[in-house]
Design brief:
277 residues, two-stranded antiparallel ribbon, 9 helices, alpha/beta
Protein backbone atom coordinates (compact mmCIF):
# COMPACT_ATOMS: atom_id res chain seq x y z
CA UNK A 1 0.00 0.00 0.00
CA UNK A 2 1.46 3.35 -1.00
CA UNK A 3 0.75 6.38 1.18
CA UNK A 4 -1.21 9.06 -0.64
CA UNK A 5 1.22 11.75 0.59
CA UNK A 6 4.07 12.34 3.00
CA UNK A 7 3.17 11.55 6.61
CA UNK A 8 5.10 13.00 9.57
CA UNK A 9 5.31 11.45 13.01
CA UNK A 10 7.37 10.27 15.97
CA UNK A 11 9.66 7.37 16.79
CA UNK A 12 7.57 5.97 19.63
CA UNK A 13 5.05 7.57 21.96
CA UNK A 14 5.22 11.40 22.00
CA UNK A 15 6.66 12.73 25.25
CA UNK A 16 3.51 14.77 25.88
CA UNK A 17 1.15 11.74 25.72
CA UNK A 18 -1.05 11.06 28.78
CA UNK A 19 0.46 7.58 29.19
CA UNK A 20 3.47 5.78 27.76
CA UNK A 21 1.50 3.02 25.97
CA UNK A 22 1.02 2.86 22.19
CA UNK A 23 -2.75 3.65 22.07
CA UNK A 24 -2.15 6.81 24.17
CA UNK A 25 0.72 7.68 21.83
CA UNK A 26 -1.45 7.27 18.74
CA UNK A 27 -4.16 9.50 20.24
CA UNK A 28 -1.56 12.16 21.07
CA UNK A 29 -0.07 12.00 17.55
CA UNK A 30 -3.50 12.79 16.16
CA UNK A 31 -4.13 15.62 18.71
CA UNK A 32 -0.84 17.21 17.70
CA UNK A 33 -1.81 17.16 14.02
CA UNK A 34 0.83 14.57 13.10
CA UNK A 35 0.07 11.58 10.88
CA UNK A 36 2.13 8.52 11.87
CA UNK A 37 4.04 6.76 14.62
CA UNK A 38 6.76 4.13 14.66
CA UNK A 39 6.15 1.44 17.29
CA UNK A 40 9.47 0.97 19.09
CA UNK A 41 10.03 -2.74 19.73
CA UNK A 42 13.73 -1.92 20.15
CA UNK A 43 14.17 -3.62 23.55
CA UNK A 44 12.15 -6.67 22.46
CA UNK A 45 8.67 -7.51 21.18
CA UNK A 46 6.67 -7.36 24.39
CA UNK A 47 3.21 -6.78 22.98
CA UNK A 48 0.53 -9.48 23.08
CA UNK A 49 -1.86 -10.22 20.21
CA UNK A 50 -4.64 -8.65 22.28
CA UNK A 51 -2.50 -5.53 22.81
CA UNK A 52 -1.83 -5.40 19.07
CA UNK A 53 -5.60 -5.54 18.46
CA UNK A 54 -6.08 -2.46 20.69
CA UNK A 55 -3.33 -0.63 18.81
CA UNK A 56 -4.91 -1.49 15.44
CA UNK A 57 -8.31 -0.27 16.60
CA UNK A 58 -6.91 3.04 17.93
CA UNK A 59 -4.82 3.66 14.81
CA UNK A 60 -7.83 3.06 12.55
CA UNK A 61 -10.04 5.30 14.65
CA UNK A 62 -7.48 8.13 14.74
CA UNK A 63 -6.34 7.57 11.12
CA UNK A 64 -2.69 7.33 12.15
CA UNK A 65 -0.30 5.25 10.00
CA UNK A 66 2.03 2.88 11.88
CA UNK A 67 5.40 1.25 11.31
CA UNK A 68 7.63 -0.85 13.57
CA UNK A 69 11.27 -0.72 14.64
CA UNK A 70 12.50 -4.25 15.33
CA UNK A 71 14.74 -5.01 18.35
CA UNK A 72 18.28 -3.63 18.33
CA UNK A 73 19.81 -7.01 19.25
CA UNK A 74 20.11 -8.23 15.69
CA UNK A 75 23.19 -9.31 13.73
CA UNK A 76 22.46 -11.23 10.54
CA UNK A 77 26.22 -11.61 10.13
CA UNK A 78 26.76 -13.45 13.41
CA UNK A 79 29.12 -16.43 13.01
CA UNK A 80 27.23 -18.11 15.87
CA UNK A 81 24.25 -20.10 14.59
CA UNK A 82 22.28 -19.49 17.82
CA UNK A 83 22.70 -15.70 17.63
CA UNK A 84 21.73 -15.69 13.97
CA UNK A 85 18.57 -17.74 14.70
CA UNK A 86 17.68 -15.46 17.61
CA UNK A 87 18.14 -12.38 15.37
CA UNK A 88 15.83 -13.85 12.72
CA UNK A 89 13.25 -14.78 15.35
CA UNK A 90 13.25 -11.20 16.70
CA UNK A 91 12.63 -9.78 13.22
CA UNK A 92 9.90 -12.36 12.60
CA UNK A 93 8.10 -11.53 15.87
CA UNK A 94 8.36 -7.79 15.18
CA UNK A 95 6.76 -8.39 11.77
CA UNK A 96 4.07 -10.74 13.12
CA UNK A 97 2.94 -8.49 15.98
CA UNK A 98 3.53 -5.34 13.93
CA UNK A 99 1.24 -6.52 11.16
CA UNK A 100 -1.49 -7.26 13.75
CA UNK A 101 -1.15 -3.57 14.75
CA UNK A 102 -1.67 -2.58 11.10
CA UNK A 103 2.00 -1.70 10.53
CA UNK A 104 3.48 -2.67 7.20
CA UNK A 105 7.09 -1.48 7.41
CA UNK A 106 9.44 -3.32 9.79
CA UNK A 107 12.66 -1.33 10.24
CA UNK A 108 15.79 -3.21 11.33
CA UNK A 109 19.50 -2.73 11.91
CA UNK A 110 20.79 -5.63 9.85
CA UNK A 111 24.38 -6.43 10.80
CA UNK A 112 27.92 -5.51 11.79
CA UNK A 113 30.85 -6.08 9.44
CA UNK A 114 33.07 -7.37 12.28
CA UNK A 115 36.06 -9.08 10.65
CA UNK A 116 34.19 -10.22 7.52
CA UNK A 117 34.58 -8.80 4.04
CA UNK A 118 31.75 -6.50 2.95
CA UNK A 119 30.76 -8.97 0.24
CA UNK A 120 30.52 -11.86 2.75
CA UNK A 121 28.36 -9.75 5.08
CA UNK A 122 26.11 -8.77 2.17
CA UNK A 123 25.63 -12.44 1.26
CA UNK A 124 24.79 -13.40 4.86
CA UNK A 125 22.29 -10.56 5.23
CA UNK A 126 20.75 -11.32 1.84
CA UNK A 127 20.31 -15.01 2.68
CA UNK A 128 18.69 -14.25 6.07
CA UNK A 129 16.34 -11.55 4.75
CA UNK A 130 15.38 -13.74 1.77
CA UNK A 131 14.39 -16.57 4.12
CA UNK A 132 12.46 -14.20 6.40
CA UNK A 133 10.60 -12.55 3.50
CA UNK A 134 9.61 -15.99 2.23
CA UNK A 135 8.42 -17.07 5.68
CA UNK A 136 6.29 -13.93 6.03
CA UNK A 137 4.75 -14.52 2.58
CA UNK A 138 4.00 -18.17 3.36
CA UNK A 139 2.18 -17.09 6.56
CA UNK A 140 0.35 -14.24 4.78
CA UNK A 141 1.96 -11.61 7.00
CA UNK A 142 1.82 -8.41 4.91
CA UNK A 143 5.10 -6.88 6.11
CA UNK A 144 7.96 -5.17 4.28
CA UNK A 145 11.38 -5.71 5.86
CA UNK A 146 13.30 -2.45 5.85
CA UNK A 147 17.01 -2.58 6.67
CA UNK A 148 18.10 0.92 7.70
CA UNK A 149 20.97 3.08 6.43
CA UNK A 150 23.34 3.11 9.39
CA UNK A 151 25.37 5.96 10.86
CA UNK A 152 28.51 4.11 12.00
CA UNK A 153 31.09 2.84 9.55
CA UNK A 154 31.38 -0.49 11.41
CA UNK A 155 27.72 -1.24 10.63
CA UNK A 156 26.33 -2.83 7.48
CA UNK A 157 23.89 -0.45 5.84
CA UNK A 158 25.11 1.88 3.11
CA UNK A 159 22.53 3.13 0.62
CA UNK A 160 24.08 0.99 -2.14
CA UNK A 161 23.94 -2.16 0.01
CA UNK A 162 20.28 -1.62 0.86
CA UNK A 163 19.22 -0.80 -2.69
CA UNK A 164 20.93 -3.96 -3.94
CA UNK A 165 19.06 -6.04 -1.33
CA UNK A 166 15.77 -4.34 -2.27
CA UNK A 167 16.28 -5.11 -5.95
CA UNK A 168 17.17 -8.70 -5.19
CA UNK A 169 14.56 -9.70 -2.60
CA UNK A 170 10.80 -9.34 -2.91
CA UNK A 171 9.43 -7.96 0.36
CA UNK A 172 12.55 -5.91 1.18
CA UNK A 173 12.74 -2.10 0.84
CA UNK A 174 15.18 0.37 2.41
CA UNK A 175 14.61 2.59 5.42
CA UNK A 176 16.45 5.80 4.59
CA UNK A 177 17.83 7.43 7.72
CA UNK A 178 19.10 10.67 6.21
CA UNK A 179 20.79 11.76 9.45
CA UNK A 180 22.71 8.47 9.59
CA UNK A 181 23.81 8.88 5.96
CA UNK A 182 25.09 12.36 6.81
CA UNK A 183 26.88 11.17 9.97
CA UNK A 184 28.50 8.14 8.34
CA UNK A 185 30.81 10.18 6.08
CA UNK A 186 30.10 13.75 7.21
CA UNK A 187 28.61 14.48 3.75
CA UNK A 188 25.09 13.99 2.28
CA UNK A 189 23.85 17.31 3.65
CA UNK A 190 22.95 19.54 0.70
CA UNK A 191 20.15 19.79 -1.85
CA UNK A 192 22.25 18.30 -4.70
CA UNK A 193 23.31 15.38 -2.47
CA UNK A 194 19.74 14.74 -1.30
CA UNK A 195 18.44 14.77 -4.88
CA UNK A 196 21.26 12.41 -5.89
CA UNK A 197 20.13 9.96 -3.17
CA UNK A 198 16.51 10.13 -4.33
CA UNK A 199 17.53 9.72 -7.98
CA UNK A 200 19.47 6.61 -6.99
CA UNK A 201 16.38 5.19 -5.22
CA UNK A 202 14.26 5.88 -8.29
CA UNK A 203 16.83 4.35 -10.68
CA UNK A 204 17.02 1.26 -8.52
CA UNK A 205 13.41 0.75 -7.39
CA UNK A 206 11.40 2.81 -9.87
CA UNK A 207 8.60 5.24 -9.04
CA UNK A 208 7.28 2.73 -6.49
CA UNK A 209 10.51 3.21 -4.53
CA UNK A 210 9.65 6.90 -4.07
CA UNK A 211 5.91 6.34 -3.59
CA UNK A 212 6.43 4.02 -0.62
CA UNK A 213 9.31 5.32 1.46
CA UNK A 214 10.13 5.01 5.13
CA UNK A 215 12.50 7.66 6.45
CA UNK A 216 14.16 8.73 9.69
CA UNK A 217 15.23 12.31 10.34
CA UNK A 218 16.79 13.91 13.42
CA UNK A 219 19.59 16.20 14.43
CA UNK A 220 22.85 14.26 14.74
CA UNK A 221 26.29 14.50 16.31
CA UNK A 222 29.12 12.60 14.64
CA UNK A 223 32.89 12.23 14.44
CA UNK A 224 35.27 10.48 12.02
CA UNK A 225 33.80 7.06 12.93
CA UNK A 226 30.28 8.26 12.16
CA UNK A 227 27.22 8.75 14.35
CA UNK A 228 27.62 9.57 18.06
CA UNK A 229 24.10 10.52 19.14
CA UNK A 230 20.85 12.10 18.02
CA UNK A 231 20.30 15.80 18.66
CA UNK A 232 17.47 18.31 18.40
CA UNK A 233 17.38 19.51 14.77
CA UNK A 234 18.28 23.13 15.52
CA UNK A 235 21.26 22.06 17.68
CA UNK A 236 22.74 20.10 14.78
CA UNK A 237 24.19 20.91 11.36
CA UNK A 238 21.67 18.65 9.61
CA UNK A 239 20.19 20.56 6.67
CA UNK A 240 16.56 19.45 7.00
CA UNK A 241 14.98 22.33 4.97
CA UNK A 242 16.97 21.28 1.87
CA UNK A 243 16.06 17.62 2.41
CA UNK A 244 12.35 18.47 2.65
CA UNK A 245 12.68 20.55 -0.53
CA UNK A 246 14.17 17.52 -2.32
CA UNK A 247 11.40 15.22 -1.00
CA UNK A 248 8.78 17.65 -2.32
CA UNK A 249 10.57 18.02 -5.67
CA UNK A 250 10.60 14.21 -6.15
CA UNK A 251 6.96 13.86 -4.95
CA UNK A 252 8.07 11.34 -2.32
CA UNK A 253 5.29 9.60 -0.39
CA UNK A 254 5.45 7.52 2.76
CA UNK A 255 6.44 8.01 6.39
CA UNK A 256 8.89 10.50 7.87
CA UNK A 257 9.71 9.44 11.43
CA UNK A 258 11.42 11.99 13.67
CA UNK A 259 14.02 10.52 16.03
CA UNK A 260 15.19 13.76 17.66
CA UNK A 261 15.29 13.70 21.50
CA UNK A 262 12.38 16.21 21.57
CA UNK A 263 10.32 13.90 19.29
CA UNK A 264 7.07 15.72 18.64
CA UNK A 265 8.52 19.27 18.56
CA UNK A 266 10.88 18.36 15.74
CA UNK A 267 8.26 16.19 13.99
CA UNK A 268 5.96 19.25 13.95
CA UNK A 269 8.84 21.46 12.76
CA UNK A 270 9.47 19.07 9.86
CA UNK A 271 5.79 18.94 8.92
CA UNK A 272 5.35 22.72 9.16
CA UNK A 273 8.52 23.38 7.10
CA UNK A 274 7.38 20.89 4.46
CA UNK A 275 3.82 22.29 4.28
CA UNK A 276 5.16 25.83 3.77
CA UNK A 277 7.33 24.84 0.75
Amino acid sequence: MSAEKLFFGTAGVPRSAKASNSPAGIERVRELGLDCMELEFVQGVRMSEKGAGNVLETARKEKVALSVHAPYYINLNSPEEEKLKASMERIYQAARIGSLCGAESIVLHAAFYQKSSKQAVYENVSKALGELAEQLRSENIPAILRPETMGKRAQFGTLDELLALSEEIEGVMPCLDFSHMHAREGKENSYPEFTAILSKVEDSLGKEGLANMHMHISGIEYDRNGEKRHLVLKESDFNYPELLKALKEFEVKGLVICESPNLEEDALLLKKTYMEL
